[in-house]
Amino acid sequence: MIKLTRGDLNQTVWASFDELEKQRKWYVIDAKNQTLGKVAEKAARILMGKDKVWNWDAQDVGDFVVILNAQKIKVTGNKLKNKLYFRYSGYKGNVKSATLEEMLQKKPEEVLKLAIKGMLPKNKLRKHRLKRAKIFAGEQHSFEHLNLQPVQLDGN
What we know:
Layout: H1 17-23, E1 26-30, H2 36-48, E2 64-68, H3 79-82, E3 84-88, E4 95-99, H4 100-106, H5 108-119, H6 126-131, E5 133-135, E6 148-150
Parallel strand pairs: 1-2, 1-6, 2-5
Antiparallel strand pairs: 3-4
């Protein structure tokens, strides 16, 4: 933990990168039968470090998050048919689209990644925060050796 003295209270204190890396924790979210927005919102809060006492916007103080069962996520309403994802290669007339249903079958990790990306602030730290999100389509993941703390989602 970073120690502050009485003279430091009126000044901005910047933690070193090494100090922040030591304090990062690993969380796991099971997305099975959870709504897309709730999982993405909770993951974005963890990646930004909003739930920490030691938090400010100018420095990346968030934690790692592992999301399991991205394939079994729920959505409400007619989003499976109506929600579209676009990608553009840069060439004329080469805009391609896919519905949420198609994306969940082909790339379920990408759906969650794009939802989390939309909830993170649009600044230079966004790319670094998004790298700390590890998303898996099923139950299997390669982080069993770490001390993963389960996250409870509100509402369900």
